[in-house]
Specification:
heterodimer, A: alpha/beta, Rossmann fold, 2 domains, three-stranded parallel beta sheet, 13 helices, 15 strands, 42% helix, elongated, B: mainly alpha, ABC transporter involved in vitamin B12 uptake, BtuC, 14 helices, 72% helix, 0% strand, globular, transmembrane (chain B)
């Protein structure tokens, strides 16, 4: 896999998505009443929909008026807001997978398509910086995709109405993120339309690659420091669900290994490598050298898909993040990036 | 207190009441028994794993190896981890006994005296600054870090009046560990790739290491073991206190220095190869002392043997309880060691080494 080649392709792909988003945003602005608030900023959503009540893990949050300044915490949430044509006032700096300015490529492309207005980026490597968030003056804080604690929720709620994850920490899929953002911003119709558009895009991509449909897969992580075990992601994991959405089927051995587990991943000894019976393996590795080491390892090379070369190599944090923290912007990006790689891997299936 | 002659023979019992320990013949028999136990756990370690391989096939894997046969490959993959387990266990057991005798501190341990933190710090610096991710190269960083930390802790503890007393050594070790851990955390937070590489190393493990790594650290471990086994008399003398030891003709400074070199060789080498394996250096010498009595010439070899058996056994246990995955040996030794440590702390006389 050459990252530079796929990057160029991805830039084009995202530009297409972003321009359609821009059109949607413009549509939204035309069809709804825009209301100037006291500080001069403008609510983009349907003001008649408010007050809105949203339920989540820590209770109910009532949003009295259409928000004008949205701040987001954790991963992915900024994307749901930007996908709906709204630039957040504050969002986290993406250390993992982001560029040197802290932007993920799909987020940056969508922001540029919206006129390149930039939010305040804050660092959350040492926890949520409550002071900085307060300074940004949000009237809504979105953390639909997050693992925020009860305590963090209380502190955020003192700054502005806050929405936590619905039920499972880190378990919110992109459709729910979009749905909640739509409700909170008064952009329900726009959110529903965008969801349909994204799903149609996935369907088109899948139709264009019939050879990958029905292939079995295992999503594995290899460690360069310990080749004696392999980590596998269970069927509840977002990465695995993303690959399923492309028409592939989880390998029976992974289903069997995961059957008593509530975790999103597990470990299996490399001594049992030959039992991982997938057509295609999605492999997290550290580097091309690490991949070569895996392919040369006397035990790991017994994984049938490693032996046949039917491997989708994942050694780029941006790639990994696009489906491990799926968002309405990252998923279309990931579909365009992953499908050709899976097609290539499928040619090696024996 | 044990009284010794200049030749190191114990001539009286501690506090004049406790027996001097079992007789020589019994102790020699115990050592032979320990060797047999070591051999047995080594065989079990090669024979038992996630993949069930019949005994005749396991034997064939070693004597009539067919490359590419997964059963053979599985059995052969257990050999380096067994060898490393024996070496690391023996080194940590010996290092713990050395440290405890040297500092007259019953809870001296590579973890407590800052050696693990020093090794970790250098490994992280190697990853972050120089991009060193191969285990074979990381060995050298861990080794250097262990040595630097040991010297730093000893130097800090030596400052002020009274020299490096047990309490000052433990405090200096805790302080340096805390400081280094903060720096490590700061570096890792800013560097996800380093974190991915480091988080495995951070919990001690003998799994997935190649024989190359064993080869890299072997000379240092063997040298360290020789120094340790030769230090029995010196430690016996030091256990009387510096003044008495000096009176008995020991060059206290030189004796300490040599034993400290042994500690750095053993801890640095073991930690470099396997990461910080907890509780072995702390608890094994106490178990050895309970068997042998206070004579370091016996405590040291017993600690080495018991450490080797414990680490290999813990690695085998980790493979059985977490099937079809495995637990890292550092987790298992902590599981076994923590209750033992609590029991030791609850015994008051522990503080009177």
């Amino acid at each position: 896999m050459t990252t530079s080649r796929t990057r160029t392709a991805s830039t084009r792909a995202v530009a297409t998505i972003a321009s359609s988003l821009l059109a949607l945003g413009a549509l939204g602005a035309c069809s709804t009443d825009t209301t100037a608030s006291s500080d001069g900023s403008v609510a983009v959503g349907d003001t008649d929909a408010f007050p809105v009540t949203i339920e989540h893990a820590f209770g109910e949050t009532v949003i009295d008026e259409a928000p004008t300044s949205v701040a987001t915490v954790s991963w992915a949430n900024q994307d749901a807001v930007i996908a709906l044509g709204v630039v957040p006032v504050a969002m986290p700096f993406s250390t993992y997978g982001g560029d040197e300015n802290g932007y993920l490529p799909w987020t940056l492309d969508a922001l540029e398509a919206l006129g390149d207005e930039r939010p305040t980026l804050y660092s959350d490597t040492d926890g949520i910086p409550f002071d900085e968030l307060e300074l940004a003056g949000p009237d809504l804080i979105l953390g639909t995709y997050s693992g925020m604690s009860d305590d963090e929720y209380s502190q955020l709620s003192k700054i502005a109405p806050t929405i936590a994850y619905p039920e499972v920490a880190w378990g919110t899929d992109w459709t729910t993120q979009l749905d909640v953002a739509g409700q909170a911003l008064g952009l329900d119709d726009e959110a529903a339309a965008l969801q349909t558009e994204i799903e149609d895009g996935i369907a088109t991509a899948v139709e264009s690659a019939p050879e990958i449909e029905g292939k079995t897969f295992a999503y594995l992580a290899f460690s360069s420091t310990d080749p004696s075990v392999v980590s596998y992601y269970t069927p509840t994991d977002s990465r695995v669900r993303f690959v399923e959405s492309l028409g592939l089927v989880i390998a029976p051995s992974i289903v069997e290994l995961s059957k008593d587990s509530a975790e999103f991943y597990g470990e299996v000894s490399a001594e049992l490598a030959d039992t991982i019976d997938a057509d295609i393996v999605f492999a997290y590795v550290d580097s091309p050298e690490h991949l070569a080491a895996v392919e040369a390892d006397p035990l790991l090379s017994a994984i049938p898909a490693i032996a046949s070369g039917a491997i989708v190599v994942l050694d780029d944090p941006t790639f990994i993040l696009s489906t491990s923290a799926p968002s309405p912007l990252s998923i279309p990006w990931a579909v365009r990036e992953y499908v050709p790689l899976i097609q290539e891997a499928a040619t090696h299936v024996e | 207190m044990t009284q010794t002659t200049t030749s190191g023979q114990p001539v009286a019992t501690p506090r004049g009441t406790r027996p001097a320990g079992p007789r020589r013949a019994t102790l020699v028999a115990g050592l032979l028994l320990g060797l047999a136990a070591g051999l047995l756990v080594a065989l079990v370690s090669v024979g038992v794993g996630a993949r069930q391989v019949p005994l005749d096939q396991a034997w064939a894997a070693l004597t009539a190896y067919v490359p590419g046969d997964i059963a053979h490959e599985a059995v052969r993959s257990r050999v380096p981890r067994t060898v490393l387990g024996l070496l690391v266990g023996a080194s940590l057991g010996l290092a713990g006994a050395l440290m405890q005798g040297l500092t007259r501190n019953p809870i001296a341990d590579p973890g407590i005296l800052g050696v693990n933190a020093g090794a970790s710090m250098f490994v992280v610096l190697g990853i972050v600054v120089l991009g060193v991710t191969s285990p074979a190269a990381q060995v050298w960083f861990a080794f250097a870090g262990a040595a630097v930390a040991a010297v730093a802790v000893y130097w800090v503890a030596s400052l002020g009046r009274g020299g490096p007393t047990p309490v000052k050594l433990a405090l200096a070790g805790a302080c340096i560990t805390a400081a280094l851990t903060s720096v490590i955390t700061a570096l890792l937070i800013m560097n996800t790739r380093a974190w991915d590489t480091f988080r495995f190393w951070q919990v001690g493990s003998v799994a997935g290491r190649s024989l190359d790594i064993v080869g890299t650290v072997l000379p240092y471990l063997v040298l360290g073991m020789l120094v340790a086994l030769a230090s029995g008399r010196v430690l016996n003398a030091l256990s009387l206190g510096d003044d008495l030891a000096r009176g008995l003709g020991q060059n206290v400074g030189r004796a300490r220095g040599l034993a400290a070199v042994g500690v750095v060789l053993l801890c640095g080498g073991a930690t470099a190869a396997a990461g910080p394996v907890a509780f072995v250096g702390l608890t094994v010498p106490h178990v050895a002392r309970a068997i042998t009595g206070p004579d370091y010439r016996w405590i040291l070899p017993y600690s080495g043997l018991l450490g080797a058996v414990l680490v290999v056994l813990a690695d085998v246990l980790g493979r059985i309880v977490a099937h079809p995955g495995q637990l890292q040996v550092g987790i298992v030794t902590a599981f076994i060691g923590a209750p033992v440590f609590i029991a030791l702390v609850r015994r008051r006389k522990l503080a009177e080494l």
